[in-house]
Design goal:
With 221 residues, the protein is α/β, with parallel strands linked by helices. The chain is 38% helix and 11% strand. It has a four-stranded parallel sheet. It has a two-stranded antiparallel sheet with strand order 1-4. Strand 5, helix 7 and strand 6 form a beta-alpha-beta unit. The protein is globular, with a radius of gyration of 17 Å.
Length: 221
């Protein structure tokens, strides 16, 4: 695994890359990709950082780990490649945007269009073995991505964090609420959404209202 990450992040994360846990993580990921089919493709592991420079981050969405079926994962949480069927959580995200903002349901589930506007689409675990959800959890990725969240909290101001579901909500303790904005709701997965914990959260219009209030360009969701 080459740590192919945009220069704007490298400056802040250099120390993290030199820690023993990260070196162990790199060895683990290299071994997994050599032995098994893993996702996303090796050159897309750090896609979230390469589409969204550190200086541009204005919204952070936190997912758990990448999609584990062929052709889906592209290094951005909840996102799939062009032409791939939208997974259930992504369908519910788009339905909420449709009702919240009155915009039409999109054809493509590729969320690089959000990332390019300053939305960091961060999975807590950046890799996964094919067809084995959670297979790369607790190997060091969470330590790294927690450090990323803490870095954004410490070094930036006015970032909107969208924490969906119990796993993401636990990350709130890493964020300074005096400097940033946290919006929480249930997860967009059908299990949560169909029980009334997702639809109607209006997170997309709320995020834009916050950004507008601090003279930051709104996201075209």
């Amino acid at each position: 695994m080459n740590v192919d990450i945009h220069q704007s992040w490298k400056h802040y994360l250099e120390d993290e890359f030199n820690k023993p846990y990260f070196k162990d993580l790199v060895n683990f990921v290299k071994s997994e990709y050599k032995t098994y089919t893993c996702f996303p493709p090796g050159n897309q592991i750090f896609n979230a950082f390469n589409h969204c420079n550190f200086d541009d981050v204005k919204v952070v969405i936190i997912g758990q780990d990448p999609y584990h079926n062929y052709g889906q994962a592209n290094g951005l949480c909840f996102s799939v490649n062009d032409g791939i069927d939208h997974p259930p959580s992504l369908i519910n995200i788009f339905k909420e945007i449709e009702s919240d903002l009155g915009t039409p349901y999109p054809v493509s589930g590729n969320l690089s269009r959000w990332a390019d506007q300053g939305v960091l689409l961060l999975n807590a675990t950046l890799t996964v073995r094919a067809h084995q959800a959670g297979s790369h959890q607790n190997k060091g990725w969470e330590t790294f991505t927690n450090a990323v969240i803490k870095l954004i909290s410490d070094k930036k101001e006015g970032v909107v964090f969208l924490l969906w579901g119990g796993y993401a909500k636990k990350k709130a303790k890493l964020i300074n609420e005096n400097k940033h904005h946290i919006l929480m709701s249930g997860h967009p997965s059908p299990l949560s959404a169909n029980r009334g914990y997702w639809f109607g959260n209006k997170h997309f219009s709320k995020a834009n209202t916050i950004l507008k209030g601090i003279n930051t360009k709104e996201v075209n969701w």
